[in-house]
Amino acid sequence: MIKLILRGLVLTSFALGMMACNTVKGVGKDIKKAGETIEETAEKHY
């Protein structure tokens, strides 16, 4: 049940984020930034 709720929240967040991006270039920048943030967080914890 928790996985289902979490999945819904992730999908909703993704959808809202996509609506905030006006161009394909903007989407690319957002995805790149998200990847960098995840990478930095992973490096801090390992």
Overview of the molecule:
The protein is mostly helical. It has one domain (2-45). The chain is built from two helices and no strands. It has helices spanning 2-20, 24-45. The termini are far apart. The model has no long low-confidence stretch (mean pLDDT 81).
Topology of helices and strands:
Elements: H1 2-20, H2 24-45
Summarize the structure.
It is built from two helices and no strands.
Uncertain runs: none
Which percent band covers the strand fraction? under 5%
Main sheet record: none
Shape assignment: flat
Global structural class: mainly alpha
Helix content: over 70%
Count of domains: 1
Number of helices: 2
CA-atom Rg in angstroms:
13 Å
Euclidean distance between termini CA atoms: 29 Å
The count of DSSP E runs of length 2 or more, i.e. the number of strands, is 0
User: What integer is the average pLDDT?
Assistant: 81
Compressed to H and E, one letter per element, the order equals HH
